[in-house]
Structures are given as C-alpha cells and as structure tokens.
Specification:
mainly alpha, 0% strand, 296 residues, single chain, elongated
C-alpha cells in the first residue's frame, strides 16, 4: 500500500525522494530475494516493479543499466507469475518510451526483451494485452539502432508468421511461395483482428527501420506480402479490409519504398490500388504515395 501511495503521488514528492539510493537499498533486494510462494512477497515484488516504472524520470543513464538487468529476468516469469511478468514489461515500456532512453545502452538487452515480449503475447489470452505487447515490441524496434536489430531479423521472420496465423486458430505455416489455404482468415471476429492490426504495425516498424534488409529476407517478404494482401482486401471475402485497411496500406507503402527491385509479387498487388480507390477515399493520401512508389 505504501509503494502504491508513493507511486500515485510521484509527481508531487519526486523532489523529496532519492530514488537511486532507495532503488539500490530497498527495491533491488525485493526483486532478488529467492523465489517463494508467499502471496505477500509476490504482491510486493509486482508493486515494486510498478513503482520503478513510475520513477522513470529520475533514473540516470547509468542506473538504467541496473534497472534493465532487474526487469529482463522478471519478464520471463510469464510461466511462473503472469502479473509480475506483465508489470515488468509495462515498466520496461515506460523506460523505452522515455526521452532518456539510449538504444545503444539497451543493445545487449534487446534480444531477450523481444523474446520475452513475444512469449508473453503468445501465452496471454486477453487480446488487448497481446496488442499492447506487440506495440511495445514495435517501440523497441523503432528506438533501437539498426545494428542491434539486424541479427534479430531472421528469428522475428520465423516467429511472426506463426503469431499471425495463431490469431485465427490456424496452426499450419505457409511452406511455399504460392497461394496457401492456411492463409484463409475469413470468418474471424474483431478481437482477433485487433491483434492482427498490432502485427501489421510491428511489421511496419520493422520495414521502416531495416528497409531493404527486411524486404529481401525470404521469410519476412512472404509474410509482408500475405499480410498486405489480406489487409487491403475490400471485396468482402475477409474482414481485413474492414479492420486494418489503413494500417495495411501504410505497410504496403513502406514495403514499396524499401524494395530495391520491382518484382512480380509487388506487381500482383497493384490492382488493389484501383479496388481501394473504388471503395472509398479515406486512404487517398497513402494511396497516392503507393502510386508514386510504383511509378518511380
């Protein structure tokens, strides 16, 4: 209760608390205490992690390294304690989004943090939580240097297709470059498309950050094209054109800009321009950018 009261009043009392000293002397011992089934200790650990997120503005660049080292293992607690793991992920998100974040300092933690975030998005049942976790992954990619993300491209290219398909309870993965019935996602509901929209936004962040590296990766390219094809379908054969048309068009625009070679698979998407413009003019600006990309 005391931790919560302090966290709620952080903006009023932050100048009276030396958080760095408190973190090292009080909060670190709480997090590093041997694992126990005592519910009181579990609640205290979760609240201490939450409190760290409230004091992000007081963390020095050097202290952030210690905080990263504390939070990363807690994010892997998803199998033992979901509340602690998700609270750690939220605190880490606040650190990454803060103006004092340096991607180079975070480089060594990026891989385990992304891995834990993907694991949590897979194991959590709540669709909104899944969506928020993938939004956090997109933020990590956006704020990290290219040199840190490139080694993770192949693992992400392998993980994201399964994640996309699992949203509609489809277990199989595409194995060829041709049309695969496993990608038929018609008949799905809006909650599932909320999660898929988060996948589209994550893919957009990857393409925007890595450019040709992402588009030229065979596994990633296959996923990108299938997702664009699904999300820009306004014919009514699936719900992609209803729930994620704007996001899919943004992804399409970024793929066109990143592609260094005009290929048949990109050419096959071109008729969608006429279909979308014939449907409505809500995405007129991005469609003009896509047309410009094809022309250039």
């Amino acid at each position: 209760a005391c931790y919560r009261a302090i966290g709620i009043c952080v903006y009023d009392i932050s100048d009276r608390i030396q958080f760095e000293s408190w973190f090292e002397n009080q909060l670190v011992p709480v997090q590093t205490r041997p694992k126990t089934d005592d519910i009181g200790h579990i609640v205290l650990k979760a609240r201490a992690v939450w409190l760290i997120g409230q004091f992000v503005g007081q963390l020095s660049r050097q202290l952030r390294q210690s905080v990263y080292a504390i939070l990363i293992p807690l994010m892997s607690f998803i199998h033992q304690d979901t509340v602690v793991a998700l609270t750690a992920a939220k605190a880490m998100q606040m650190l990454v989004e803060d103006l004092g974040f340096y991607g180079t300092d975070f480089a060594q933690y990026l891989s385990p943090c992304l891995s834990s975030t993907f694991d949590m998005s897979e194991l959590c049942e709540n669709v909104e939580t899944k969506r928020d976790l993938l939004a956090f992954a997109a933020t990590m990619i956006d704020r990290s240097p290219v040199s840190s993300i490139l080694p993770l491209l192949e693992p992400m290219a392998k993980a994201l297709p399964a994640m996309w398909l699992r949203a509609s309870d489809v277990k199989s993965l595409p194995v060829t470059s041709g049309h695969d019935d496993n990608w038929d996602l018609s008949g799905t509901d809006g909650r599932e498309n909320l999660f898929r929209t988060a996948v589209v936004l994550l893919l957009t962040a990857i393409v925007r950050k890595l450019g040709p590296h992402a588009v030229c990766n065979p596994s990633m390219r296959e996923l990108l094209l299938r997702v664009i094809e699904y999300g820009t379908d306004v014919s009514g054969s699936n719900t992609g054109g209803i729930f994620m048309l704007e996001e899919a068009c943004e992804l399409w625009d970024n793929v066109i800009c990143a592609a260094d070679v005009y290929s048949a698979d990109l050419s096959n998407l071109y008729p969608r321009v006429h279909e979308i413009l014939g449907h409505d003019f809500d995405n007129l600006k991005v469609m003009f950018r896509i047309l410009e990309g094809y022309a250039l």
